[in-house]
Specification:
Blueprint lengths: L4 H14 L3 H23 L2 H18 L9 H34 L14 H11 L3 H12 L4 H8 L3 H23 L1
């Protein structure tokens, strides 16, 4: 894998930040905040939650940056932090949603809930909707691979799993995405 000018610049910024350079930290944040925000938004599907998650992630990044041994791994390390924070948020949200559903069911015998599925327009909307229906780990691996351009090895480092697991998840995620898209068409 060849390193780009941006990769080298990021490595230099990380080294400067590790040395205590506050201006370098501002530049690093300015360069990476939008990318991390997009990842969080793709994984959560909610802009407000994504913003909160990225703020929490930056606290962890700033606190742990001195312990990052290899500045070239900043990208996968930062993405792993955001991915983990999104997973935590998703778990909390599932618990909250389940509790809310139990309360609704107890309060109203026949809730008569109507699903408000937004109509998709265009291929991008359809794919985004289909991605939202995938389990978190499948959504994460597809986003990191196709939207962030990561290779299998970098995704493995980001998610802290073996490369074989990444390959397997990519295979199953693609198959599941195809099924979801086909169901959406019928």
């Amino acid at each position: 894998m060849s390193r780009t000018h941006e990769d080298i610049q990021d490595e230099l910024l990380v080294l400067q930040c590790q040395g205590g350079d506050g201006e370098a930290m501002k530049v690093l944040i300015a360069r990476w905040h939008p990318r991390l925000g997009r990842l969080a938004w793709r994984l959560t599907g909610e802009r407000d939650a994504a913003q909160d998650i990225v703020q929490d992630a930056w606290l962890a990044i700033v606190r742990g940056l001195r312990r990052l041994d290899d500045p070239a791994r900043f990208r996968s390390w930062a993405y792993r932090i955001v991915t983990n924070k999104c997973a935590d948020w998703t778990r909390r949200r599932v618990v909250q949603r389940n509790a809310a559903e139990e309360l609704r069911a107890a309060a109203v015998s026949d809730s008569g809930r109507s699903s408000s599925d937004a109509e998709s327009t265009g291929a991008v909307s359809r794919i985004r909707d289909a991605l939202a229906k995938l389990p978190g780990e499948q959504k994460a691996v597809l986003s990191l691979h196709y939207l962030d351009g990561m290779g299998v090895a970098e995704i493995a480092r980001t998610l802290d799993v073996p490369e074989g697991t990444v390959k397997s998840r990519l295979y199953h995620a693609r198959s599941r995405l195809k099924q979801v898209l086909e169901r959406m068409e019928t």
